[in-house]
Amino acid sequence: MTKKEIGLTNSAGDLATGPRYREITARIREMLANGTLCAGDKIPSERSLAERFRVSRNSVREAIRTLAEQGILETRRGDGTYVRESDGERLAAAFVAGLEAQRHRIGDIFQFRRMIEPPIAALAARNVNKEQLDRLKVLVCDQHQCVLADRDDTDFDVAFHRELARASGNRVVEEALNALHELLAETRSGFLRPLERRESALRGHMRILMALENGDGEAASQAMREHLQRAEAAALSRKSSSTDKG
């Protein structure tokens, strides 16, 4: 097989929001599943991947090391890193095992989000001021434009949840979500956000915004809970379909 170097496109926001080596590992597995990468292909350099994914070279190196330990990649001194010419059954098994581990982690993070974000929404409904409400409306409008154009809306999704935390009036809540940003961002990776999930997320934000306008804490909490449940179902469904492809 001809050895070719694979180029990767970097959709805005895919990795800029925080996921590190686990997300890079998952992205490479995704490319193996959809045929972007095949046995014998050379992957881009650590520096190139770090620039495109907007992460440190150490994160890229850790992802490559993980995949090498699983027998998926091999690094050739002085030449680069290649997808191993291994038997298809072994490669598929490693791919499925890795996706399953990532699936459990995504589920755990969503469970954590459901524990903390509905009460934040309820608090915001009681404390939000007009200026904050206007900012949330602008963010939803901007997100709507992205969804209509089928563009990545991750930055607006993140900004909405951050502004909601700010609207709670509790500075510790805002600081805690900022500190947990990298962890929570693992559920917002671009390849976990197909168009149907982005459309559903937009509707969820609209329902939360309506509850905030009405000052209804219970409705805001329920809207957030349902929003996260739908997001989790869409994300895990995306991972299941990727596993089926393998």
TrEMBL record:
Keywords: DNA-binding, Transcription, Transcription regulation. Residues 18-86 form the HTH gntR-type domain. It holds the Pfam family FCD. GO terms for molecular function: DNA binding; DNA-binding transcription factor activity. Gene3D superfamilies: GntR ligand-binding domain-like, Winged helix-like DNA-binding domain superfamily/Winged helix DNA-binding domain. InterPro entries: GntR_C, TF_FadR/GntR_C, Tscrpt_reg_HTH_GntR, WH-like_DNA-bd_sf, WH_DNA-bd_sf. This is Transcriptional regulator, GntR family.
